[in-house]
Amino acid sequence: MGGACSRKRDQQVDEDSENRGVSGRYCKSGSFKWLGNSLSRSVKDNELGKVRCPSLMELCIYKIREDIKKYSTFSMLPRDISQQVFNELVHSQILTEVYLEAFRDCALQDLDLGEYPGLKDSWMDVISSQGSSLLSVDLSGSEVTDLGLIPLKSCTNLQALNFNYCDLISDNGLAHISGLSNITTLSFRRNNQITAQGLSVLAGLINLLKLDFERCPGIRGGLVHLKGLTKLQSLNVKCCNCITDADMKHLSGLTNLKELHISCTKVSDRGVTYLRGLNKLSLLNMEGCPVTAACLETLAALPVLLYLNLSRCNLSDDGCEKFSALRNLKVLNVGFNDITGACLVHLRGLTNVESLNLDSCRIDDEGLVNLAGLRLLRCLELSDTEVGNNGLRHLSGLTNLESLNLSFTVVTDGGLKKLSGLSSLKSLNLDSRNVTDVGLASLTSKCLTGLTHLDLFGARITDSGTTYLRNFKNLKSLEICGGGLTDAGVKNIKDLSSLTVLNLSQNSNLTDKCLEMISGMTQLVSLNASNSRITGAGLQYLRPLKNLKSLTLDSCKVTANEIKNLQSIHLPNLVSFRPE
């Protein structure tokens, strides 16, 4: 389903779609499905578009940042002020090893250095000089090695450590932090060096609440060492293909577990049986595990299970009647399974469900009748199913629905009129070659003009169709990439001032003139105009877009140097751009 211009998002747990660390600086500039976790801290209110006066403290911090070369130490300042100065230097990426020395013995509490450039072992002496005041450290994506962790032994009150993507840390490094008994949160995502032996040193960290070893392929057999961590509430071993049913047995006594992520492991129905006694488990992610509907019998015994991900498993209609016992579920993902409308019959009683994902299942119009009673449903994914116009009538009573994905379905223009009663709808995905200007016209009822996200990526929208978009004053995200737009079409949407994400790629007739019209969209954070006739000369029109963080102009007559010049002089917040 879909067409040549449409996207097919069916990759299994794309590792590049995961945010690295907690810095929020990572983005997928090509797909425009991201929105940074931490937008630039300017003195503009991005929601209201109003300028506010910076506080006196902010002005002082900014002045210190500008004159940072003048300061040799901040140890005489109150801790909260030196913390703010540190945070500002990190945010501005001005902090260097030389400037870091000024923060020695400042009793800082939180050092968020996730993916900070140049961070290595030589920085760790100043970091550890914060001593017992230090509560959290994020070193994700750094070049810190095992030796660099030795100084942290003196930071006895540390509660949170993040070493995601630190490829130079091994079992030996884990040993250096084994005495930090106050740690509650520890993360080592995507590390090829850590083994079961490394996990053995964690046995003494009895206060651990959250543990993350996602994409650590060497921890085979290591979960046995977690048996004594009885306070543990969250465990993530996603994409650790070495994890098997035997490992689940070691988790059976962790009765305080609330979240368990075992997606893309080798855990089968047999392994799930060991989870029966985890009565506090509210979230279970088993995406990509070789489980069948037989596991539902065990899951039905979990009294507070609210979030269940069984996407890309081995589910079929056989045995799906056991879904009916999971009456507390709020979120259910069974996408990419071989289930039909016969399975949906057993979901009718799950009246607490707020989010349901049926992506790429063999669901047709008749199957949707079973969803008509799920009145609390807020998010429904029907992408790449056999749902058509007739099926949409069963959704008309779901008045709480806020997000609906109909991409790659057989829904046409005629069926879209049946969505007119969904007054709560905020996000609508119509990435399909079956949708044209005619269908867009039917969305302009008063009930639907509150949309904030509209995906028309592969829809056959022309300049004429964009006139209907003028009614969607609240749109924050818009994608029109079917190839039918010219500059005249962009003119019709130039007054959508709330837009933060705009994707106009694949429209080969767009010229520099379209950038001139976009120049008034000052809230834009992401812009994609790839595969168009835009040139370097048109970049001048982007100068007013001070909030722009991502710019993609692939296959345009624009060079990386031209974008870098624009960034350095006019767009200081631009952190991701292509070509690069």
Automatic annotation (TrEMBL):
Ranges where the record places region Disordered: 1-22
Gene Ontology CC terms, in alphabetical order: SCF ubiquitin ligase complex
Pfam entry (one): LRR_6
GO biological process: SCF-dependent proteasomal ubiquitin-dependent protein catabolic process
SUPFAM superfamilies for the chain: RNI-like
Location of the F-box/LRR-repeat protein 15-like leucin rich repeat domain: 151-205
InterPro entries on file: FBXL15_LRR, Leu-rich_rpt, Leu-rich_rpt_Cys-con_subtyp, LRR_dom_sf
Record's protein name: F-box/LRR-repeat protein 15-like leucin rich repeat domain-containing protein
Lineage, uppermost ranks: Eukaryota, Viridiplantae, Streptophyta, Embryophyta, Tracheophyta
